[in-house]
Specification:
Layout (H helix, E strand, L loop, with lengths): L4 H20 L2 H7 L10 H6 L6 E6 L2 E2 L3 E2 L6 H11 L3 E5 L9 H10 L9 E5 L5 H9 L4 E5 L5 H13 L5 E4 L2 H10 L3 E5 L11 H7 L9 E5 L5 H9 L4 E4 L1 H4 L4 H8 L25 E5 L4 H9 L4 E5 L9 H15 L18 H18 L3 E6 L4 H10 L4 E4 L15 E7 L4 H6 L8 E6 L14 H10 L3 E3 L8 H8 L3 E4 L4 E2 L2 E2 L1 H18 L1
Parallel strand pairs: 1-4, 1-10, 4-5, 5-6, 6-7, 7-8, 8-9, 9-10, 11-12, 11-18, 12-13, 13-14, 14-15, 15-16, 16-17, 17-18
Antiparallel strand pairs: 2-3, 19-20
Helix pairs in contact: 2-6, 4-5, 4-12, 13-14, 19-20
Length: 541
C-alpha cells in the first residue's frame, strides 16, 4: 500500500483542490474567458513535426519532486522558460502542482508570457498535471497552456475518452502518458495521437530506463502516432538511444533544473555541443553507451519474487551467490531467477562483447575503460544483468554454472589468481579485499587482459563479503582515478551510498547486507539505495 500511495495521494489531493477552485472560480467563468482567450494557441503536434531536430526536447520546469524533495527552489519560471526557448526546446512543460512539485498555474502563465514575443515559433506550453476533472482542462487553456498531460493510470476509460474530447474541443491535442503495456493499449484504443512513455513508475517514483524500450518493441501503432520518452533522460547518449527506437521527443526535467547552464545542457542534448568530459565513472560517454553514471548491483538475491522486485526498482545487476554463504543459491533456484528475469526483460539476452587484447590498450587505464564501456553498453540494452559470485571454485564448475543459468558476468571473490579469468566463458570481475594496503600496492598487483573490472571489498577473515563493514574510500578513489572501472562494495547502505558515489565515482556500487533487515532482503531499503544512487548521478550532470 505504501508503494502505491504517491500517485494516488497526489490525485486525491488534486480532486480536493479542484473543488476549492470551483468555489472561487466556477467552470462557467472559465468558459466565458475562452470566448475571447488571452493567449493564442499553437498546434502541439505540428510544433513537434516541424521541429528541425531529429529528437525534440521538452524542457521541464519544477522546483521539487516527491522523490527528490527540493531541486531548484528559487527558480523563476519566466527566466527558466526564456533560457529553454533560446536553447531550442520544442516544448516547455510546467508542473502546476504546488504541494509536491512547488510550482503553480501562475508559474505556467509567467512562462507563457515570457516567450510570447517569439510568436508562432515559440515552444509549446504543456500543463504537466494530475488531471482528474475536466475543470483542469479549461483551467489549462485559460492560464496559457497549448496542451496538457493526461495520465492513463489515474483515469478510467470513460474519463480518458471524455478528457480527450474536451481537450480537442479546446484545440489542444493532449500528451497521453502510459507506463505499461495495458496503459499503452488503452491509450491507443482511445485514439491518443501523442503518447508519452514514462520511465518513472509514478506509484514508487523509481526510474526504469527499459520501460520505453519494452513498450515500443513490436508495437503495432499508426505511423502517425508520436512517441515521447519521459523521465530519466540525462545526456546525449540517452537521446541517441531513444532516437534509434523511433522516439520523436524526450522530456527532460531534473537534468535541466540542476544544470549550471540549462542553455548549454539543451544544446548538448540536441547534439549541437559535445558532451562534457565524464566524471571518473569507468568510461567515457559514447554512442550507444549510457553515459558515466554509477550503476547498481544488488547482491545475494535468493528468490524469484525479490529478483523481480529488485529489477523493477531499477537495479542494473543482480548478484547470485554460489560461494559458501548464508546467501548461497542452488543451481535450480538460480535458473528459476534467470528465467523470470529474462521474461521481465522482454528481450533476448545480450552477450557482453569481449575486450580484444591489443598492444595499445594493455595499459591499465585504457583496458578497464574499454571493459567498462562494454559492460555499460550491455546494461543499456537490457538490464538487469546476472552476476554469479564464486570463491575458490574450479574452472569447470564455474563454467558449468555460467552456461546452465546462464550468467552474464562471473565475479571471483576468493584467492583465485589473475590468469584464471581468461579461462571463464563469461566476462569476469575480480574482487580485491582491502585491508591495510596502500593504493599503490594494490595497483601494482593488477594485471590486464583477463578481468573486466576490479571489485574492492572490505577484508574480513570470517567472510568474503556481505559483512556490512566499510574501508577507507580514499583508497578506492585513487584506484578509480588511476585504473578506472572500479566496483565499490563493503558496508554500503541507503544512508551512505550517495557520499560513496560522490567521493569515489565508481563504475558500480555493490550492496548486500546494507539492504537487509534481520538477514532478509528489504525491498524498501533496496528501492531507497537505488534511488539515492540515481539521484546522485543526476546531481553530477
Amino acid at each position: 500500500a505504501i508503494a502505491m500511495s504517491i500517485l494516488f495521494e497526489i490525485s486525491r489531493q488534486r480532486k480536493k483542490d479542484v473543488e476549492i477552485s470551483r468555489l472561487t472560480c466556477p467552470l462557467e467563468h472559465l468558459q466565458k474567458q475562452l470566448v475571447n482567450p488571452q493567449f493564442p494557441l499553437i498546434d502541439f503536434k505540428t510544433r513537434i513535426t516541424e521541429d528541425n531536430h531529429e529528437v525534440s526536447i521538452f524542457a521541464e520546469i519544477k522546483r521539487a519532486s516527491p522523490s527528490k524533495g527540493d531541486i531548484a527552489i528559487n527558480t523563476k519560471a519566466d527566466e527558466q522558460a526564456v533560457l529553454y526557448a533560446r536553447a531550442g526546446a520544442c516544448a516547455i512543460s510546467v508542473l502546476t502542482e504546488p504541494k509536491w512539485f512547488k510550482t503553480t498555474l501562475q508559474d505556467m502563465t509567467d512562462a507563457r508570457k515570457a516567450i510570447h514575443h517569439m510568436g508562432e515559433h515559440r515552444p509549446a506550453i504543456i500543463r504537466k498535471e494530475f488531471i482528474v476533472d475536466e475543470y483542469q482542462i479549461y483551467e489549462a487553456r485559460v492560464y496559457g497552456a497549448d496542451t496538457l498531460l493526461l495520465i492513463v493510470a489515474i483515469l478510467d476509460d470513460n474519463q480518458l475518452n471524455s478528457f480527450l474530447k474536451v481537450s480537442r474541443q479546446l484545440k489542444m491535442e493532449p500528451l497521453v502518458e502510459v507506463a505499461n503495456a495495458l496503459e499503452m493499449q488503452r491509450a491507443l484504443t482511445a485514439g491518443a495521437k501523442i503518447i508519452g512513455i514514462n520511465n518513472r513508475d509514478l506509484h514508487t517514483f523509481n526510474v526504469n530506463m527499459n520501460t520505453t524500450t519494452n513498450l515500443l518493441s513490436d508495437l503495432k501503432a499508426s505511423k502517425d502516432t508520436i512517441f515521447v520518452a519521459l523521465s530519466g533522460i540525462n545526456n546525449r547518449s540517452d537521446v541517441t538511444f531513444y532516437s534509434k527506437l523511433g522516439v520523436r521527443a524526450v522530456l527532460v526535467g531534473e537534468a535541466l533544473m540542476v544544470a549550471r547552464d540549462p542553455t548549454l545542457k539543451i544544446k548538448e542534448l540536441l547534439g549541437e555541443l559535445p558532451s562534457p568530459p565524464p566524471p571518473l565513472g569507468g568510461g567515457s560517454v559514447s554512442e550507444g553507451g549510457i553515459g558515466c553514471e554509477t550503476l547498481v548491483k544488488i547482491c545475494g538475491i535468493k528468490d524469484v519474487d525479490t529478483a523481480i522486485a529488485t529489477a523493477s526498482a531499477g537495479a542494473d545487476f543482480i548478484g547470485l551467490v554460489f560461494a559458501e554463504s548464508k546467501r548461497k543459491v542452488t543451481l535450480q533456484t538460480a535458473k528459476d531467477i534467470a528465467n523470470a528475469i529474462r521474461k521481465w526483460r522482454k528481450k533476448e539476452r545480450v552477450i557482453i562483447d569481449r575486450v580484444e587484447v591489443e598492444a595499445h590498450i594493455n595499459q591499465q587505464g585504457e583496458w578497464f575503460k574499454r571493459a567498462g564501456e562494454k559492460v555499460r553498453q550491455a546494461v543499456k540494452v537490457t538490464r538487469p544483468l546476472l552476476v554469479g559470485v564464486f570463491a575458490n571454485n574450479d574452472v569447470d564448475t564455474i563454467n558449468m554454472i555460467a552456461r546452465e543459468v546462464p550468467l552474464d558476468i562471473v565475479q571471483l571473490s576468493g584467492k583465485e589468481g589473475w590468469s584464471i579469468g581468461s579461462s571463464i566463458i563469461a566476462p569476469c570481475w575480480r574482487c580485491i579485499h582491502v585491508n591495510n594496503d596502500t593504493p599503490a600496492s594494490i595497483i601494482s598487483g593488477i594485471t590486464t587482459g583477463s578481468f573486466y573490472n576490479i571489485l574492492l571489498d572490505t577484508s574480513n577473515p570470517s567472510a568474503l563479503g556481505g559483512t556490512g563493514m566499510t574501508f577507507d574510500w580514499s583508497i578506492a578513489r585513487q584506484i578509480q582515478q588511476t585504473v578506472g572501472g572500479v566496483i565499490l562494495a563493503g558496508g554500503l547502505d541507503p544512508l551512505n551510498v550517495s557520499r560513496a558515489v560522490q567521493e569515489v565515482r565508481p563504475l558500480v556500487v555493490d550492496v548486500s547486507s546494507g539492504v537487509e533487515t534481520n538477514g532478509k532482503k528489504d525491498l524498501s531499503k533496496i528501492s531507497s539505495f537505488i534511488r539515492n544512487v540515481k539521484s546522485t548521478n543526476n546531481a553530477k550532470l
